[in-house]
Specification:
By secondary structure, this protein is of the alpha+beta class. 55% of the residues lie in helices and 15% in strands. The protein contains 15 helices and eleven strands. It has helices at residues 22-36, 48-63, 140-145, 195-213, 217-230, 262-302, 306-310, 314-331, 338-364, 368-389, 395-421, 432-450, 464-484, 492-511, 515-541, and strands at 12-13, 42-43, 82-88, 98-101, 110-116, 121-127, 130-138, 158-164, 174-191, 233-247, 249-254. Strands 4-3-6-7-11 form a five-stranded antiparallel sheet. A hairpin with a 2-residue loop joins β6 (121-127) and β7 (130-138). α10 runs antiparallel to α11 and α14 runs antiparallel to α15 (515-541). The radius of gyration is 60 Å and the shape is flat. The chain starts with 11 loop residues before the first strand and ends with a helix.
Length: 542
């Protein structure tokens, strides 16, 4: 296909994981040497797996409409030949087989199928001469006998469809469309030019009338008739054409290899679900086997550790050893189910887990009593601090927290006595986690009280000096208002005397920057000045 021979090959680069197999390299080298006549070394400069994967991804991305990558202008070709044939549904006629895509045609091509037909038909698709698919196209007869029955068609309907060859190598018949052309007549009205005939007739009539009547009136009437005749319209028929298009119905029927039916798909899905469930059970059983085997070997190692030996008896360790031996022999037996493995695994864990817990608690109890004592001492210090410096804390809260602390101390003392009397191979009287949880609750209560902020004090009342000054100001304002509202004197001498006194007071108020008093005195001054003028005016009239 590339118009090249082995003699044109100068270098060889192998890709794919299989080229690492020595036998594959030997076969390739021998083939190239025989075909070319000389030996060419196999190039191994690329990662075989990555080269193939990257190449496939790049080709797929170039062919995709969703990814934007740099175009490499690479187009794959078809390894099959595709041909089409149109046949009648009743078998009365069939067209010649037409090869649309010869062998080696580039993928992604689009070609068009066109034919003339007045009835429904089928299109057969062949792959390398073998019938692959048949498309039944219907709707032609229904349109011609129904909606388009009364149309004056100019010819046989034309049917066209697209037949693309996808980048995946799949060929398909798409969007079959029927097109017809209708011819129809329409009335066209146009004005005719009859000026020559009208003029001739008018001239003849005019001469006749003039000879008979001997007047020019008849000549004017004939001119009007000629003008009307020139405007008379003419109706003609004109042929027009119009195209009609309609999509047809297409139904696909596949031949070998046939696609699965809906029933077969459902059955296979159910079968796949059963297989998946069975595989899950197998995997779970295998996991339980591994866990049980690990528990057997792990239990033997654990009972030999010093920390386990301290908190267990010889009988307890022998019981674990015996169970591990029995389980090891039991595992070689066939026919066990998942529930059997779960039961055995739970049994050996039930023996070893208490030993591990006792060993863990024994390690944690080392120095734990001192830690508890320090925590209790800290809470007592917090209590003393609250009583000495935080008087705003309600005494009932302190007493309740103190009672809880006392109850804990009693409980802790009893637990310590019980633990001291117990042997190490028995369950401990308390767990460190339980004690820490109780201490945490108590500590939280004391910390909450310690963080309680002192309530804000009420705002202090105004001092006596401030109250006196405010009262004085108020009294001064009241006095000013009263002074402005005092009755005016009726005697001239008294009015003049009071006017001079008010002016002196006003000047003194301005010097002291008491502008409120100065303003009220100004009002009194104006009133007294008017009163003096009124009295003097009354005396001059007398």
């Amino acid at each position: 296909e590339a118009n090249a021979t082995m003699k044109d090959i100068q270098h060889v680069e192998v890709i794919g994981g299989a080229w690492r197999v020595p036998k594959v390299q030997e076969l390739l080298s021998d083939y190239i040497e025989k075909a070319k006549g000389e030996k060419i070394p196999l190039g191994q400069h690329l990662n075989g797996e990555e080269a193939g994967a990257f190449g496939a991804v790049l080709v797929a991305a170039n062919a995709s409409t969703s990814f934007r990558v740099r175009k490499i202008f690479f187009s794959d070709v078809s390894h099959h030949e595709y041909a089409l044939q149109a046949v009648a549904l009743n078998g009365e006629w069939e067209k010649n087989v037409t090869t649309l895509y010869p062998l080696g045609s580039p993928l992604g091509g689009k070609k068009k199928l066109s034919l003339n037909s007045t009835e429904d038909f089928a299109v057969r698709v062949f792959e390398d001469g073998v019938l692959l698919t048949e498309y039944t196209v219907t709707g032609v007869k229904d349109l011609l006998e129904g909606k388009w029955k009364d149309y004056n068609l100019t010819g046989t309907p034309k049917i066209s469809a697209t037949v693309p060859l996808e980048m995946s190598g799949i060929i398909e018949l798409k969007t079959p469309t029927i097109t017809v052309e209708e011819a129809y007549w329409v009335n066209v009205t146009k004005k005719t030019n009859a000026t020559g005939n009208s003029t001739a007739n008018g001239t003849g009539n005019a001469s006749t009338n003039a000879s008979e009547d001997g007047s020019s009136e008849s000549s004017d009437e004939s001119s009007e008739n000629a003008s009307d005749a020139s405007q008379e319209p003419e109706v003609t028929l004109k042929l027009k054409k119009k195209k009609h298009e309609k999509k047809l119905t297409v139904k696909r029927k596949d031949f070998m290899p046939l696609p699965l039916s809906d029933k077969e798909v459902s059955e296979l899905k159910a079968k796949l679900a059963d297989v998946t469930a069975e595989e899950a059970q197998v995997q779970a059983l295998a996991g339980l086997k591994n866990e049980l085997e690990a528990a057997i070997y792990g239990s033997r190692d654990k009972i030999e550790r010093d920390e386990i030996v301290k908190v267990s008896t010889e009988e307890q360790r022998e019981e674990v050893t015996k169970m591990a031996t029995d389980l090891e022999e039991w595992m070689y037996e066939a026919g066990h189910k998942k529930a059997d493995y779960e039961e055995k695994l739970g049994g050996i864990r039930a023996l070893v887990a208490p030993m591990e817990e006792r060993a863990h608690e024994f390690e944690l109890r080392s120095g734990f009593e001192e830690t508890v004592a320090e925590s209790i001492a800290d809470m007592k210090k917090t209590k003393a601090h609250i009583e000495a410096n935080m008087s705003w804390i309600n005494a009932s809260k302190t007493e309740a927290a103190e009672k809880k602390l006392g109850d804990f101390e009693d409980w802790w003392a009893k637990k310590q006595e019980s633990q001291a009397a117990l042997p190490l191979h028995e369950a401990p009287a308390y767990t460190v986690s339980d004690v820490n949880e109780r201490l945490s609750k108590l500590q939280k209560d004391w910390d909450k009280m310690k963080k309680t902020k002192k309530p804000k004090e009420a705002a202090p009342k105004a001092e006596k000096g401030d109250a006196d000054s405010k009262s004085k100001k108020k009294k001064g304002k009241d006095a000013k208002a009263a002074a402005a509202e005092e009755p005016l004197p009726e005697d001239l001498a008294t009015a003049k005397k009071e006017l001079e006194a008010v002016r002196e007071k006003k000047a003194a108020a301005v010097e002291k920057e008491d502008f409120d008093l100065a303003h009220s005195l100004k009002q009194r001054e104006d009133a007294l000045a008017k009163q003096v003028e009124r009295i003097e005016a009354a005396k001059s009239e007398l």
